[in-house]
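Quick note —
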Amino acid sequence: MKIVLTGGAGFIGSHVADILIREGHHLAIIDNLSSGKMGNVPPAASFYKLDILDPSVGEVLQKESPEVIIHHAAQISVRCSVEDPINDMEINIKGTLNLLQNAVQHNVKKFVFASTGGAIYGEQDYFPADEQHPQRPLSPYGIGKLAVERYLYFYNKTYGLNYTVLRYSNVYGPRQDPYGEAGVVAIFTLKMLDNGNSVINGTGEQTRDFVFVRDVAMANLRALNSDFIGEVNIATGTETSVNQLFGILKNLTRSAAPEKHGPPIPGEQLRSVLSWEKARTVMGWSPRVKLEDGLAETMEFFKAAAKTR
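Predicted structure written out below.
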């Protein structure tokens, strides 16, 4: 199958690229390398250094003639979306609309979209949240993702473009950037390996649903091969507190760093955990990697990367 993958040089996208190449698909990657790395791009993939806002996206689609677009390129920082909602809108909404318009013009059959779970649902009414949970995003980032989901419904009903929305919980794993806007797993792991102090925001009792990046990549493959149209959570259904995460990583890294707490982040979500039952029903997907195993693999990745610095 011919596929165009946006953001394929990034953390999650590169793992998706790996599994697509392994499965024998013809893959072209679009990435502006603002946060992605060329070292993450599989040699077998065609690569276009290009922004999703660029009008020449259409030229790539004309040349590659993809049947499917898998869209991971995005402004990923919740904090930056609050500070600059216009920039977030430009990239995450306008950039996606550029892709969608070109997808229709070049006869793309399906669009797989990387969305978000926690940032769309907001503070939950029940646990775990399924796809029918009220959607109350508390950031421009979450609002933008939800807006794109609504646009996908429009493009399906108006133009017949099939789609699957993957609402990720907190993704972690090898290749996650521990600098800038990064997940707590990457930040804690690197700090502990460098014998630095990791600061836990607030009490540390806030919870997240941590899903391993290779499981997420498999969800993209299952979406590719499924006729399902709509939204599915990609998660583990298990809550882990930041304090619990700190303890597991401290044991894995054999760090002597004390548990140090800082002030809470204003507006930070207290609990987030998502049900993945629908993904199992409609795509045959389930999370496979246990948290301790995924964290151990992530730690080994950062240890190896440190030796090359």
